[in-house]
Amino acid sequence: MADTQLMVWIDQDLCTGDGICEEICPDVFLGRDDGLWVVKEEASHFGETIIFDGADGAGHGPEGARGVARVPDSLIEAVVESAEECPGECIMIEPYSAEILAARGV
Ligand code: SF4
Fold it and tell me: Angle at Cα 56 formed by Cα 50 and Cα 59, nearest 5°?
């Protein structure tokens, strides 16, 4: 299990769909079929993959402000760079919180 000090989510209302975030950090950002990007937790870091795309079923979690993924400490720099380069300014980074983790439901 990766150490994690930060969490990240995307405000899909502001996402321009250019995919820069996934180019910089493909372990955390993923393009959805509708052309908007979401966050994810990869099994290589957290033991199971969870995609925060609002879909039902195993391996999926809520999107938007409730779809908050843990950031492995090894990827902090890449996630911060993604947020800095994001033209929609819609990548939201927060300190790790057990309460947020519990509220997302997965
Ligand atoms: S960089 Fe920002 S605007 Fe571009 S796809 Fe990623 S979240 Fe959306």
Answer: 20
